[in-house]
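Last lecture ended with a question: if I hand you only a sequence, what can you say about the shape of the protein? Today we answer it with a concrete record. The protein is DUF7704 domain-containing protein. Below, first the input exactly as provided, then the predicted structure, then a couple of comments.
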Amino acid sequence: MSVSIIYRVFLLYIEPLSTIIGAFYAHFLPRTYLELTHAPSAPASNSSLPTSTTVVLTQLANLYFLFAINEGLVLRATNDLKVWRILLFGLLLADFGHLYSVHELGHQVYWQFWTWNAMDCGNVGFVYLGAAIRIAFLSGVGIGAGTPMSSGFQKQKSP
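The predicted structure:
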């Protein structure tokens, strides 16, 4: 089986790296993360963040890190198309959940891309891209029966 280079570059490098950047912001720059998400409801810059907020943002960072590890390492560890499909289907469901999570910002956040800040680009635009790539993969676009899929790790031989 062969997989388009677009899938390999995006799923094995670009998306895991961008997800780790999101984890970094959520954990190490929580105030910036909150201000970029929705400045009017972010705590005042001269006040400390509520403990519950820092705990939840650290949990979010941990989940982002897990997302990056699952995608970046699990997909590298196997050439099995079934594993790729299962993992990418799970991530597609997470994409829909992530898009739902910003609905409180108003319906315009989904389509008024010219008003997006960096967080909106990640929370909506980048998620659209990831979902589109997953849908294409799950639909078989760019998946062929040619040369074996190259994942970056040597394929293990069965005993």
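Comments.
1. The CA atoms of residues 85 and 138 lie 6 Å apart.
2. The chain has one domain: 2-39+52-142.
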